[in-house]
Amino acid sequence: MTFSTQFLSALVYGSLAWCAVTALGLGTLLIRDIVRGEIW
Amino acid sequence: MTSEAALLPAGVGWTLLAAFSVLWIGLGIYWGRRNKSFEDHALAGRNIGLALGSATAAATWITSNTTMLAPQFALQLGIWGMLAYSTAAIGLLLFAPMAGRIRKLMPNGYTSGDFFRLRYGRVAWAVFLLFTLFYSLTWLVSMAMAGGILLNTLSGIPYAWGMSVILGVCVLYTMRGGLAAVIGTDFIQSLIIIVGIVVVGVAVLSHVPVEKIHANLAAERPALLDVLFPAAIMAIFNNLLFGLGEVFHNNVWWSRAFAFREGVAGKAFALGGLIWFPIPLAAGFVALASGALNVPVPAADMVGPLVVAEVLGEAGAIGIFIIVFCSLASSIDSLLAATADLMTEDVYRRMFRPAAHPETLKKIAQWVTLGLGLFTWAVCLPRIGTLATVLFFAGPLVGAMIWPIVTGLYWRRANTTGAVGGMLLGAGIGLFFYFAIGFYVASLIATAVSMIWVLACSALSKTRFDWALLREAE
């Protein structure tokens, strides 16, 4: 039994999209913390 | 490695190294200017917000192993290999609720050593210090050594120079800026690493679609697609336990739990785990493309950079150089800061100078950071090779500490006999099997033995710990 093409595609595209979203999320969180004066 | 065989000209490597060195040191000095006391230096004033907190949790866990070893895992263990590497994120996710509890129970705590001293007494504290210092110093040396080797392989910069520069830069900005500098640079480094991995991944996919990668693997190396690949499934347990033990015990993570603003610690570690989880998958799959792209791979540990250089040329090699440099710096600085804090708080202050002034402690922490840097440099200079074996040797020590920590944080009946016996028996029996069978069972056996002993001692215990004892005044 082997992993299918669809599974590999989901893993690869999913992880890249996840990384892109987390980078955007981190940037957004930083801006939010700066605006609230809660960065550190 | 000669400069002719490297992926980048040495001049480009030196320019990148110089530029990032100036940036990190400059930021370290700038962020360190407000540090007046040991608390400011070691814990950034205990006021870190969610953005920096989440980024530092993820960045510290992104070592050079994550960006270099994940592709190697994929090449050798296939899809399960990538997934196995990603399970290390579970350590951060499970530490999230513990971090919130640590912050609540120990509002004045500084280190994981403080927890052992207050919760289990001085004998358990001594055993813990011995184990954790051995592990932390081994990890530090292995990271610095990896830095020299990787910079040499990528750009031809001589090993001794590359190792010295990366270590020296991290020592300088950690000394000057303390945890604030470490966490601030971690944020920038984590963004560079994540964006870099996405760019590299998209570039690889634009050259070879997933369907072609899958077809090539099915024809040439079908084991990498096997759902029942035994070695790869074993790797999941090994990585999972190692990750849990490392995160649960090491002061790198505890110091962050103390440094985050109230109410932030749990969320920051949970987000850090979610940020980290896809990185080994996104960084690892490029190795699976090596066959479809016809990239020769003379050494498995260089498969990632080789594929990226093939697809993106010199620009890709520059990207990999920056990603690797950031991955190394984000781990070396954290280890330097956390280990220096442990030696300052647990050894200097608690054993020799209980009445030391906060400003004096800050200076001691800075000198200890420098001393750690010099020690690491002296050990790394002869280039004795890989320290992977020694790190695996530390696996049973790390595994044996999981249960004393978890039960000590949540169970009033967890006691000193359980903690000391669990650590010593678990580590001892784990090390016996390390030599008798192999590294891949050592952590598992150490954790299991420690668990049985700790649970038995807790079940038979009549004592009930008073949580208020953890709220030690400064």
Tell me what you see in this structure.
The complex is a heterodimer of chains A (about 40) and B (about 475). Chain A is mainly α. Chain A has one domain. Chain A has one helix at about 5-35. The longest helix of chain A is centred in the middle third of the chain and has 32 residues, at about 5-35. The N and C termini of chain A lie far apart (about 50 Å). The mean pLDDT of chain A is about 95. Chain B is mainly alpha-helical. Chain B has a single domain (about 10-470), classed as Up-down Bundle (Sodium/glucose cotransporter). Helices cover about 80% and strands about 0% of the residues of chain B. Chain B contains 19 helices and no strands. Chain B has helices spanning about 10-30, 40-45, 50-60, 65-85, 90-105, 110-120, 120-155, 160-205, 210-220, 230-250, 250-260, 265-275, 280-290, 305-350, 360-380, 390-400, 400-410, 415-435, 440-460. The interface of A and B includes residues 3, 4, 7, 25 and 40 of A.
List the helices and strands and how they pair.
The complex is a heterodimer of chains A (40) and B (474).
Chain A: H1 5-36
Chain B: H1 10-32, H2 38-43, H3 50-61, H4 64-86, H5 89-105, H6 112-120, H7 122-155, H8 159-207, H9 210-220, H10 230-249, H11 251-259, H12 265-276, H13 279-288, H14 303-352, H15 358-380, H16 388-400, H17 402-410, H18 416-436, H19 439-460
